[in-house]
Amino acid sequence: GGPASLCRFRGALVGAVLGDCIGGEFEGTEEVPLDRVLQHLEGLEDETRGDCILQYSDDTAMTRCVAHSLLTRAGFDEQDMARRFAKEYNLAPGRGYGAGVIQVLKKLASPQLSDVFQPARAQFGGRGSFGNGGAMRAAPFALAFRERVDIQRYARLGAMLTHSCSLGYNGAILQALAVHLSLQGALALPQDFLNTLITEMEELEKDESTRSDARVLNESEFPFCARLHRVKELMERNKVSIEEVISELGNGIAALHSVPTAIFCVLHCLEPREGLPEKYGGLERTLAYSLALGGDTDTIACMAGAIAGAHYGIEAIPQAWQRCCEGSEEADMLAQRLHSMYHRAPPEG
Ligand code: F2R
Ligand code: MG
Ligand code: MG
């Protein structure tokens, strides 16, 4: 499909759900041998297995809230989005939420709360969360807004409802921008794709709160840019081991240790890779590779799945895999509605 085509929109949201559901099997496992990953994926094709429902976790639960809110309010409405997060948590608290964010979701349920950003600001002694919970649900912002400035503004605000640390919300912006560029077909030129992300993040990370968060948390200046430069270096190497990827980029629950990693997974799997079945297309390779990194597999695969799905489109996602995953049909429907909203909105300028 062409830039911003329906099949790319559907691929983005369905790819994210599949990453979450399929990746859930290995979340928190530090070493995941590739043959275990391939066995898990082969199991999805086994028609004799009957009902194969892999449940979605907090990643999809919150992405659904973001998409429903953007559609219902025809734009960003922080009160509505916060209410949806709280209600969703209350209905299904067992979806594997982060240990800290639960406190925020409980406070957001209070009808007395007037400033919906306040509970997030109170997290971790006032520093705010740097977890990847803002980034894991950021894809719908790229499907609802056309202009980069809007994607950045609303992905930041949407993340700040739970993640007030710049190392949390900047990860959400990076993820939303990666999905946006992929929807436009930018992965056809991988180096340019990466350079654009670096340029955008350089501008964002000049900000004083980003500088001070990086100092306090002992991170380098321009932390996301530094990681994206490492992605570039890894791409230039002939061979990269899983251990090198983990040590250079991380596979953890912090946005800084997972969003650049997800971007690397997509870029690395644009071409066939040793150890991955020849029959796999790029989307399957990306999900398999994300799982093989271990660590926060549901979230890394969810974010990589959204970026890769926006590139390859829905036709590249095996039907058998879609059938196995709770919420994939709803994600497809939400993507179709967001596509209509995106193309209805008058271009700015
Ligand atoms: N939580 C999980 N997985 C763990 C176990 C789930 C298991 N299946 C179960 O059911 O028990 N996965 C989900 O959490 C990640 C997203 O987390 P989010 O939304 O960012 O949460 P939180 O609590 O804000 O941050 C996560 C942890 O990061 C550390 N942290 C964050 N900011 C910090 C700070 N400023 N100082 C110190 N530590 C900080 C804390 O350990 C937080 O708990 C996704 O993986 C999702 O799938
Ligand atoms: Mg999860
Ligand atoms: Mg996770």
What does this structure look like?
- With 349 residues, the protein is an all-alpha fold.
- It has one domain (6-344): ADP-ribosylglycohydrolase fold (Orthogonal Bundle).
- 61% of the residues lie in helices and 0% in strands.
- The protein is globular.
- It starts with 5 loop residues before the first helix and ends in a 5-residue tail after the last helix.
- Residues 27, 296, 298-299 line the site of one magnesium ion.
What order do the helices and strands come in, and which of them pair?
Elements: H1 6-23, H2 34-45, H3 58-72, H4 78-91, H5 101-108, H6 118-121, H7 139-144, H8 148-160, H9 166-183, H10 190-204, H11 208-216, H12 223-236, H13 242-249, H14 259-268, H15 282-292, H16 297-312, H17 319-324, H18 328-344
Helix pairs in contact: 1-15, 1-16, 1-18, 2-15, 3-4, 3-18, 4-5, 8-9, 9-10, 9-16, 10-12, 12-14, 14-15, 14-16, 15-16
The protein binds ADP-ribosyl-L-arginine and magnesium ion (MG) (2 copies).
One magnesium ion binds at residues 27, 296, 298-299.
